[in-house]
Design brief:
Elements lengths: L1 H11 L17 H13 L10 H9 L3 E7 L21 E8 L5 E7 L5 E3 L6
Antiparallel strand pairs: 1-2, 2-3, 3-4
């Protein structure tokens, strides 16, 4: 489990080199953002929170599917060691969604935090 924890922590710190959604230079694009918002609207029964703009941007960036709320509470769900600095997300909801490769197979299950950072629940190369 510690190996997965290390992997998830490195993903939180930047998604394997990616920056949080707020600091990316490239625009996500209107079509990807609209697709993410549409998927969120269809999944409203699985959402227990209103996603932040940064969570929506992260979902759009990764073309996320099957969104749901994910309680960031180590007593109920897996939560990696989060980086110091910034607000403490524990006790709040993250936006969980899957990402797929070109063949349609799930490759990542990300949980986006309110600032747009995310961690992968499946681990690397799952």
């Amino acid at each position: 489990m510690s190996e997965h924890r290390t992997t998830a922590t490195s993903c939180v710190l930047g998604l394997a080199g990616e920056k949080p959604a707020a600091s990316r230079r490239e625009p996500v694009g209107l079509a990807r953002t609209a697709r993410a918002i549409t998927r969120l609207a269809h999944a409203r029964d699985r959402l227990k929170h209103v996603p932040t703009v940064e969570q929506i941007r992260s979902m759009a960036w990764f073309d996320g599917r099957e969104p749901c709320s994910y309680l960031l509470d180590p007593e109920h769900n897996y939560v990696p060691e989060l980086p110091a600095g910034g607000e403490d997300p524990l006790g709040r909801y993250g936006l969980c969604f899957t990402c797929r490769d070109a063949a349609g197979h799930p490759t990542m299950e990300l949980v986006a935090l309110s600032n747009g950072w995310a961690f992968d629940l499946l681990g690397p190369f799952a």
